[in-house]
Amino acid sequence: MEQDRDRDRGEAAFSDDNVGVLLEALPYIREFHGKTVVIKYGGAAMRDEGLREAFAADVVLLKYVGMNPVVVHGGGPEITEYMNRMGMEVRFHHGLRVSDADTVEVSKMVLLGKVNADLVSRLNRAGQPAVGLSGEDGSLFEVGPVANAEQVGFVGEIERVDVDVLNHIAEDYIPVIASSASDRAGNSYNVNADEAAGKVAAALGAFKTVFLTDIVGWLDDPDDESTRISETTVAEVEAALPSISGGMRPKLGACVDAIRGGAQNAHIIDGRRPHSLLLELFTVAGIGTKVNP
Ligand SMILES: Nc1ncnc2c1ncn2[C@@H]1O[C@H](COP(=O)(O)OP(=O)(O)O)[C@@H](O)[C@H]1O
Ligand SMILES: [Mg+2]
Fold it and tell me: How far away, in angstroms, is 276 Cα from ligand 1 center?
């Protein structure tokens, strides 16, 4: 074993600083034991090979220390890339992908066949078996069309999450959920992955809901990354929501859904930073925005 050889040579695997990090994490590890954490995966952490590996290692570590991680993902950039390759027109309306039947079909193929399969295989290789599922599996999500379906087409809103299937799988595996679903009539829909993560967290009464994104957190001034709001309350988020624009809006809306639905905290963190998940959960300072009830 590599580690044993190092030990024989008397090489210190950890410096005193590293030991400090472990000691800092210990009370959190104790507090989080047996608790469910829902993680919305996306952005840079999904596009960069090194970040993908670091993310898988973090999720596996959470499982090893006794937490119950549940991953929810979208696949926006990959879907756009494949649509471009197939010569399909890509359009958005207020942050939602305008989705005709062909768009939904391609989205589903990319989400399940590529993004989901890749993450499941990575988690398996990192040492914890994972199971991939979409909203259809075990009737996980029941969806209906969003209110502005005339503008966006087959974009679905989650009306109900059936947690039975998740609880069964999470006993032994890490569930990895792709944000697609069908309605009762069998029509397929795209679902915003932030919304899906918020609804899943609420249904599970998650201890933590963590959203990985490509910015340091919720910013007081959207153009100034030094204005990160480190900690806030769900009431403050609700009050600010009407004035929030872009992709941060569904994300903050999902934080509200999660907490109002019974999850304890929501966190928005910088997925561009390797191991951001561990830094947020297991260090005193944290690195992103923490939303409290
Ligand atoms: N007040 C704000 N704080 C932070 N980001 C904001 C804010 N207002 C708008 N945004 C935008 O929201 C984006 C995050 O959402 P999005 O692009 O959908 O990322 P993701 O892939 O994580 O869903 C940020 O990159 C930023 O451009
Ligand atoms: Mg988004």
Answer: 17
